[in-house]
Design goal:
The protein is built from seven helices and seven strands. A three-stranded antiparallel beta sheet has the order 1-2-3. The chain has a two-stranded parallel sheet with strand order 4-5. The protein has helices at residues 2-56, 70-119, 130-178, 183-207, 241-262, 283-300, 311-314, and strands at residues 212-216, 222-226, 232-235, 271-275, 303-307, 320-326, 329-335. The protein is mainly alpha-helical. A hairpin with a 5-residue loop joins strand 1 (212-216) and strand 2. It folds into three domains: 1-45; 120-180; 183-335, P-loop containing nucleotide triphosphate hydrolases (Rossmann fold), CATH 3.40.50.300. It comes from Actinophytocola xanthii. Heterodimer of SbcC and SbcD. Residues 1-45, 78-105 form a coiled coil. Keywords: Coiled coil.
Amino acid sequence: MDAALAERQAADAAAEAARAKARAARTAVERAQRQRTELVEEERRAWAALRAARDRFTAAGAPPVEGDDLARAWQALLDWARAHREELSGRVAELERAEQDLRASGGAARATLTELFDRHGIALPREAKPDVVLATHLAEARRDLDDLQARRSRSAALAQEVEQCREEERVARTLGNLLKSNGFEAWLCAEALDSLVTEASEILLQLSGGQYELHRAERNELVVIDHNDAGTRRPVSTLSGGETFQASLALALALSHQVVGLSGGKRDLNSMFLDEGFGTLDEATLDTVAATLERLAEETDRMVGIVTHVPALAERVPVQFAVTRDGASSRLRRVEV
């Protein structure tokens, strides 16, 4: 019995020891879990600090945070920082040298400005900086320039207005002279003649194959411009018979159109007759004249009558009348074409 009791006590002691170990193990596990949680949180803060540190230098070209090795990521950032610091150190030295050069250049420029001020008699206030004084004078010069340009624009506008007034004065003086005595009548006739000659010149240019134009000279005399002779101007009296006929025909055609135009459309020339003159034309000119008359009849719905002994021209007339002599009289008959 004593042995059983002793065995029981030993078993209880062993159980108590086991329970103590279990409690110690649980305590160690809980401590380890807390430490793990703290370590995870510290690692998270370390990653956050790393990313924050990297973000501060993103503009400077810091490398991105990659991988899941915190120590390696920090080391990569530190390596970049060291290399960047060396680069910046070199640039700082370069910038310092550039600053020194600029200071030297600035001093030389200020000395040059001071010399220029003295040369041009510009007083430099005491303790004043030459560049500031120069900027002030430049601003004043620009204001003066703007004012001069504005005055120049106003002067140009006034000059244009004066010229317009002078033109109106010239027109009024001209009208006054024209309205005196027979001046207006002479002016009106000259204008009508110019209009007639201009239109006749266009027709003659076509009839002559681009050789002749008409022009009104002084004293209302007509001259021709010969484009085949370097634009020489000569009296119409120097034209040959065929050329004179072309000029006369051009004037007649232009006059017929002018009469209708001056009447304001209230009068119309329904017919037009041309008597001879065709025999003086060569074959090419005769063809041009005939084509012009045919086009005139078609475009104006006007009857164009031709009196001619030229068979080549008569053949082109759609309606023909033949005149034959019969003793002391003449007979008229229609010819079927």
